[in-house]
Amino acid sequence: MEAEKSIQEKVRSRRELKNEMKLEFDAVSENEAFARVAIAAFVAPLNPTIEELADIKTAVSEAVTNAIIHGYEEAFYLPEEKEKKVVMHCLLLGDVLHVEIIDEGKGIENIEQAMEPLFTTKPEMDRSGMGFAFMEAFMDDLEVISEPGMGTTVLMKKKLGITPWINQEE
Amino acid sequence: MEEDFKVIDNYLMVKMPEEVDHHKSTYISQTADSYIVREGVGNVVFDFEDTKFMDSSGIGIILGRYKKISYFGGKIFAINADTRIKRTLMICGLHKVIEIME
To answer: How far is it, in rounded angstroms, from Cα B15 to Cα B45?
Structure first.
C-alpha cells in the first residue's frame, strides 16, 4: 500500500509540473550546440531516457539550424533596427514538452514543399533536405507557421516517458 | 583537426567529431573534398567512434561525398556507428547506398 501510494504521488507531482523558459540568441552556427545543451538541461527534471533526450536534441538542432541558414541566409537583409536573433521558447506542461523556435527571417513560400523529405533549396551547401522529416520523426507533433517576409515559427510537442513501451512493442 | 583526416591506400579515413552538426559540417565537407581532389582517393570511410550526436547535417556530408566519388565507382563506408547513429542513417535510407560496418 505504502509503495503504491508513493508511486501515485510521484505520478501526480509529475503531471502538475509546469515550467517555462525563453531564450534569445544570435543566429550564428556556434549557438546550435548551445540550444541543444539548453533544452537538455531544461527537460532534465522529467528524467527523460537517453533516447528521448537524443530525439529532442536532434529536433531542436534541426529547427535552429534551419532558422540560421535558411531564415537568415546571407542574401537576406533585415531592416537596420533589427538584429538576426533566434528565439527558443520552451514550456513544460505535465509530462508534455512544447518547443517553439522562432525567427524573423525570410519565411517559407511553400511550406508543404519545404517539409517534403529530401527537398532542399541549398544542395550546394550539402544540405540533405531531411530537417523537417527528422523533426517529424523524433517529436510527436510538428507545426510550421510561416509567410514570406514574416519569419517562421516551428512548434513541436513531445510527450515524455512513453518510449520504453513503444520499444517493447517493436 | 587536420589529424582527423588520413589517407590509407585508396581510402580517405575521416574521424567524425563528438557532435556532428551544421557548424562542424562545413569544415568536414570542405577538407574531405580537398583530400579527394588532391590525393585522388577513390573511397571514403567515416569513423563514428567518438560521435554521440548527429543531425541531418551529417547526412548531408555523407550524401555530398557520395555524389562526388560514386561517379568513379567509389564507395562510402561508415564504421563504429552506435545504434543511434545507425538509426539516423537508416531513416534516410542511406544504408542502401553506403556500407555500415562494425
So the answer is: 8
**Predicted confidence (pLDDT) per residue in A132-166, tens digit:** 999 999 999 999 999 998 999 999 999 998 755 55
Q: Closest Cα of chain B to A68: distance in Å? A: 10
pTM over 0.90: no
Location of C-alpha cell 534551419: A66
Q: Identify whether the C-beta of residue B36 lies closer than 8 Å to the C-beta of residue B1.
A: no
- Catalytic (active site) residue A15: no
As assigned by CATH, the class of the B2-101 domain is alpha beta
Q: Which of A130, A134, A163, A166 to mutate to test the interface with B (most CBs of B within 10 A)?
A: A130
Q: In sequence order, what are the residues at sequence separation of 6 or more whose Cβ sits closer than 8 angstroms to the Cβ of residue A149?
A: A106, A107
Contact yes or no for A144/A108 (Cβ under 8 A): yes
Q: Is the Cα torsion angle A26, A32, A37, A38 positive or negative in sign?
A: positive
| Residue B46 Cα distances to A97, A129, B50, angstroms | 34, 21, 11
| Superfamily, domain A2-164 | Histidine kinase-like ATPase, C-terminal domain (3.30.565.10)
Predicted ipTM > 0.85: yes
